[in-house]
Write a structure and sequence with these properties.
It contains ten helices and ten strands. It is α/β, with parallel strands linked by helices. The protein has one domain: Alpha-Beta Barrel (TIM Barrel), CATH 3.20.20. The strands form two sheets. An eight-stranded parallel β-sheet has the order 1-4-5-6-7-8-9-10. Strands 2-3 form a two-stranded antiparallel sheet.
């Protein structure tokens, strides 16, 4: 197997620990080519590696019913994991076409009531992969997820791709939850200023380290640091210098160090602030006892 498809080595550990605001631990396989054997890294291995470099916990995020159930189950038995549950905007038209979207949203509401489920997400709008015919289902589901987050008193994790204006308009029309996070922030400084005006959080992924993404670094500069989070969106969006290889929560130090360098601040100071921000959004990772459910769904 070539190096291109292998997980990168461990980075230097952070002195001040942080959290991964958004990851997909259930996606334990990766391959950049059908001709290359699949790389596997079990979720426990990912968490152990993350712990060893100063990533103290992760938010494990669902994108459909199966991954949302798994996320809630793993959070119930693993103290380093909190969960977010939702039907991803690119999945909602499929549920709608099958006539099961309402049932799916009802189950998300139930999963959102579990103690270590601390967010509804990822939800939002995606006009890149879903065409005009799927937008009505996306919007209906987005509004329903917003309502679930408010009724359950949870944070909201937003997926926003090529839909900045529509996402903002929806949040303003429906009323955003008190803690709203733009996961893998992809906007410019103007969108960052709009988010800051409303107290919405910006979570930066490995994309902020890419040479071709100066607008993300401009956005990072323009937003108050009390609203800044960091994430991987693993196994995707691996930060420089390992862009193109599989990503995992243990690679957060690369992104955080790049952010600190761009802001001209000490990485430990930024880490302490980002860690505090994350706990403001989701609470403490060890605030409820972790007990094993009867039959956890293992992916």
């Amino acid at each position: 197997m070539t190096e291109e498809f292998e997980y990168p080595p461990l980075p230097e550990a952070l002195v001040v620990p942080v959290y991964d605001n958004h990851t997909h631990l259930e996606l334990t396989t990766w391959s950049g080519s059908e001709e290359v054997p699949v790389v596997t890294l079990d979720y426990k291995d990912q968490l152990d590696r993350a712990s060893s470099v100063g990533v103290r916990g992760v938010v494990q995020v669902g994108t459909d019913l199966a991954s949302s159930r798994w996320s809630a189950d793993i959070a119930a038995i693993e103290p380093r994991v909190l969960a977010a549950v939702a039907v991803h905007p690119n999945e909602t038209p499929r549920y709608e076409a099958a006539g099961t979207l309402d049932d799916a949203l009802a189950e998300i509401y139930e999963l959102a009531g579990r103690p270590r489920v601390r967010a509804v997400g990822e939800t939002g709008l995606d006009f890149f992969r879903t065409g005009e015919d799927g937008r009505a289902a996306q919007l209906r589901a987005f509004e329903a997820h917003i309502q679930i987050a408010k009724e359950r008193g949870l944070a909201l994790q937003i997926h926003d791709r090529d839909a900045h204006a529509e996402v903002v308009a929806t949040l303003l029309r429906v009323g955003a939850p008190e803690r709203t996070v733009f996961h893998c922030f992809s906007g410019d400084a103007e969108l960052a200023r709009i988010c800051a005006e409303h107290g919405w959080y910006l979570s930066f992924a490995g994309t902020v380290t890419f040479k071709n993404a100066p607008i993300l670094r401009d956005a990072l500069e323009s937003v108050p640091r009390r609203l800044v989070l960091v994430e991987t969106d693993a196994p995707y969006l691996t930060p420089v210098p390992f862009r193109g290889r599989p990503n995992s929560s243990y690679l957060i130090p690369h992104t955080l160090r790049a952010m600190a360098a761009h802001l001209g601040t000490d990485v430990s100071m930024l880490g302490a602030l980002v860690s505090s921000n994350t706990e403001e959004v989701y609470g403490l990772w060890n605030s409820e006892p972790v007990t094993e459910p009867p039959s956890p769904n293992q992916a």
